[in-house]
């Protein structure tokens, strides 16, 4: 039986300048789902994702993670919901890749030996171990993205949120990040991805939510919704445009 992990009721968010970023959004997310969040620039994807771990607090409405109201349980929420930001540079604080990934577990005050073991395991899994002594600012865009993912994995969150994980990546970079995301989902983690690039993930996703002007326009099976993308300003994937069979990007 599936268990609800995030529950959102009538969530609205108004920015300081009066602009409505989210307009009466209601939905719930079950453990183990793999959700694509689609929508054109400015549709409210990042604003929505920032509510999932309390970086933004609703103007009205309610968001609960594991049954607890986010605004009243910020630390617990951030342990449960990890977020890989649109621009990984904004997330980097360590002098080395190792320290960068160790930063989260250090804040959780875990034992040093356990931190070292966890960070080493994650760096090896993501094929980053050879970069452990490098300064994160000297890495390529794809490497930085993977280090940001490693930093989130080190916190062992139940839900991982990716904001545009494929932007600025070349094809091999997309494949690397994609395979990391697929492995996470297959190991039971709940994954939410905001992306303009639907094609690499649609084969694996269990659900697609399409946003427009801060509202949810569509929410359902990704394959069933591909034809509804373009009215919302998102390019329909080639396979459906040309009536071809969808093919996984994972070889
Ligand atoms: N601090 C702010 N003050 C006022 N308006 C804002 C602020 N931050 C974002 N917005 C507006 O809210 C809307 C939604 O922005 P958001 O970043 O959530 O869009 P998005 O769907 O993530 O877009 P993109 O695909 O470009 O990342 C945009 O029109 C944006 O200009
Ligand atoms: Mg965004």
Task: Write a compact overview of the structure shown.
This protein has helices at residues 45-52, 74-80, 97-107, 112-125, 141-153, 171-186, 199-202, 222-225, 238-241, and strands spanning 4-14, 20-30, 34-38, 60-65, 68-69, 81-84, 159-163, 190-194, 207-212, 215-220. The chain is α/β, with parallel strands linked by helices and 251 residues long. It has one domain: Rossmann fold (3-Layer(aba) Sandwich).
- Helix/strand order: EEEHEEHEHHHEHEHEEHH
Summed up, the domain count is: 1
Distance between the termini: 31 Å
> Helix count, per DSSP?
9
Structural class: alpha/beta
Number of strands: 10
Percent strand: 15-25%
Shape verdict: globular
Largest sheet: 6 strands, mixed
Mean pLDDT: 91
Across the major sheet, the strand order is 6-7-8-3-9-10
Helix and strand arrangement:
Blueprint: E1 4-14, E2 20-30, E3 34-38, H1 45-52, E4 60-65, E5 68-69, H2 74-80, E6 81-84, H3 97-107, H4 112-125, H5 141-153, E7 159-163, H6 171-186, E8 190-194, H7 199-202, E9 207-212, E10 215-220, H8 222-225, H9 238-241
Parallel strand pairs: 3-8, 3-9, 6-7, 7-8
Antiparallel strand pairs: 1-2, 1-4, 4-5, 9-10
Helix pairs in contact: 3-4, 3-5, 5-6
The structure holds adenosine-5'-triphosphate and magnesium ion (MG).
Adenosine-5'-triphosphate binds next to helix 1.
